Amino acid sequence: MLFPAFESRWLGADAQLGGNHWLKALRPGGVTALLLLEGPVRVEWSLRSHREISGNSLIWLNTAVALPESWRLLGGRQHEALALHFPIEWVHSSLTSLRQELSADFRGLLLGPHSATPLITRPLEAEDRVWSRTLMAPTLCTAARHLLEGSRMSEFFFRKVLTESKGEELFCTRTRRLSLERVAKVRAALLENLEEPPTLEELARLCGCNPQYLSRTFSEAAGTTISLYLRRLRIERAAEMLAHGRANASEAALEVGYRSLSHFSQAFRAEKGITPSEWVRRPGISAEANTNIGANANTNARQIPA
């Protein structure tokens, strides 16, 4: 296979639930890049060896050398991360001939000699956040999705481990950085009002460019159109509301800007592969969420037509 045993997995939980399920997500025998988007964590290797890492960090671990003994979610707030797993054989075969191109800490972490706590961190850049949201391709078949995600993961890996020193910014690098900054601005503006989002013209004024240029460069940088990106943000928000029992399907649809329940269901299936009702019935959803959903269904004052 072109990308053998590459894996990506979203992690998220309230701090009081603990971080054991995060620890279980770390596969042995490889290198894990964990994009810690929200919430601080404490990684413990022994009683006298630990690291506390703030949110908005990129954590690199060599699980072929040692796995942490415990992983705690700190801060009493929501946590969110994207874990990427790269098999150690692939890492070694890809980087051995490039050993001298690596920074000292990456060289030690990935190729050795290894420390007793094989972990390094980097600040999470704005473009990393944008990239994390465009990694998944749920509308593709399994084989095509694996190929596309593997390609994006390998590009991310090499971009991070081989470009420690930015030096003088090249024109193409600056162009991409500006495009990613525009994506971040569009994302923030859309999230502020999913129910009545800004128009393309309003977004273009916010980004300081014309609508056609914004539309084209956004698609190139984010890998999707602004309208599909808006759909993704809306469905992610609705899915979170449904999963935590904060709304039923009608309420969630209205909250994120859908006036037709059938249109909402079609968009939900396009993003998640299942209907809203199937999403609520997933194994593992809390009893509290099911109770809240039932209560919302009985007291809902905001109904929309099917």
Automatic annotation (TrEMBL):
Organism from which the protein derives: Prosthecobacter debontii
Pfam family, one: HTH_18
Gene3D superfamilies: Homeodomain-like
Domain HTH araC/xylS-type: 184-282
Record InterPro entries: Homeodomain-like_sf, HTH_AraC, PchR_regulatory_protein
Signal peptide as annotated in the record: none
Keyword Ligase: no
Highest taxon of the lineage: Bacteria
Keyword Transcription regulation assigned: yes
GO molecular function: DNA-binding transcription factor activity; sequence-specific DNA binding
Keywords in alphabetical order: DNA-binding, Transcription, Transcription regulation
Protein name as annotated: AraC-type DNA-binding protein
